[in-house]
Amino acid sequence: MPDACWYEQMYGGRDENLLPLEPGHKYFLADPLAARGGELLDIGCGTGNFLAAAQGKILGWFQGRMEFGPRALGSRSILADPRDPEMNAKVNNAVKFREWWRPFAPSIKKEAAGEYLESATDSPFMILTAQVRPEKRGVIPAVTHVDGSARPQTVEKEINPLYWRLIDEFGKRTSVPVIMNTSFNLRGEAIVHTPTDAIRTFFSSGMDALAIGSFLVEK
Description:
Elements: E1 26-29, E2 34-36, E3 39-41, H1 43-53, E4 59-62, E5 76-80, H2 87-96, E6 105-109, H3 113-116, E7 130-131, E8 149-150, E9 153-155, H4 161-174, E10 178-183, H5 195-203, E11 209-212, E12 215-218
Parallel strand pairs: 4-11, 6-9
Antiparallel strand pairs: 1-12, 2-3, 4-5, 5-10, 6-10, 7-8, 11-12
């Protein structure tokens, strides 16, 4: 079984053409050469830090090649803090426009899976279910279903290093190396494919920020 599968078309980097914005919108460029406390800052680390300090904000994540298959796996995703018990309802109401109880999945660093899941089987494609450990269900309530289960994605540094760094940075800031992940689309629409798709969906929903290429855009 392959560990990852993406389409050929590539988007990303520092090209301002990724951002078809009208003048006046606020955005930041995450410089991979910018030092922060002796560490290198890239869009993965910067976004993980943003989500850790965001206090309930919802972020679109558009990076590189699009995933092939039924799940968003860290290239075309909507991300949020799994520790917030209201986040499930918030994303359903403000972004997905569907029933508040619809569940979301956790993306978790592969090496931390056993700490949060009772059966830490590799699940790179988010198609297997597992029971969240009872002592962790209150830690990540936004991605724990009512029966204590979850449909996790285990993220490997070697397979998706940028997304892994996002989760790792979030974990460093919060002690929880888990991110709430759902597909980057609105109800009844396909997952976004191009930068223009991402920008349109971002401004058509209740998302607060968008990480696209090396840019972090805020409304």
